[in-house]
Amino acid sequence: MHSIADILAQVIYVGLNLDINLTKPIPADKRNLQNVNEGMRKKKFALDVVKAVDTFEQLPEFQYLQAYVNTTKHYSLVDVTHQISLKSKTPKYGIQILPFEYKRRSFTEKWANDFVDQDFKAIGQSIICVGNELNKFLRTVIGV
After folding, report:
1. Is residue 4 a contact partner of residue 17, using CB atoms and an 8 Å limit?
2. Number of neighbours of residue 107 by Cβ within 10 angstroms
3. Would you say 23 and 42 are in contact if contact means Cβ atoms under 8 Å apart?
4. Are the beta carbons of 49 and 73 closer than 8 angstroms?
């Protein structure tokens, strides 16, 4: 799911022909969602798409995913534990991702099931919003 941001950046870049529509083309190895979005913002191009990408990047579930993946990929594995919680009427049990830090930001513990189910659903819905804005923009450009 983390790589979807890189794929989304490429879809936006190619779909909006940003090699031509940006002030300066973004080299393929620098073409991530943040750089593509910043290039569009500076050019004031497809601003509704920019806004949708901003919302996506600010989504707490995406920020958690990004921090988790980058911590695990570049620094160390994030600790997990097997837990049982009897705090509610329905006991909760399973793997819990323990608190960790990424780029001086603290992330609290999270149940692995919540991470996979709820967070991925929220991220997926936000990606759909970006796609919808991209489609709207393209329809106005080609007059459909």
Report:
1. no
2. 18
3. yes
4. no
Element (H, E) at 32: none
CA-based max dimension of the chain: 58
Please, are residues 22 and 40 in contact by the beta-carbon 8 Å criterion?
yes
How far is residue 6's CA from residue 16's CA, in Å, rounded to a whole number?
Answer: 15
pTM, two decimal places: 0.86
pLDDT digits (tens, 9 = 90+) for 31-53: 999 999 999 999 999 999 999 99
Rounded-to-integer distance, Cα 66 and Cα 105, Å: 12
DSSP 119: I
DSSP state of 28: G
Confidence of residue 2 (pLDDT cuts 50, 70, 90): low
pLDDT digits over 83-141, tens only?
888 888 888 889 999 999 999 999 999 999 999 999 999 999 999 999 999 999 999 98
93: its two tokens:
């049990």
Residues belonging to the chain: 144
Structure tokens at 122: 């929220």
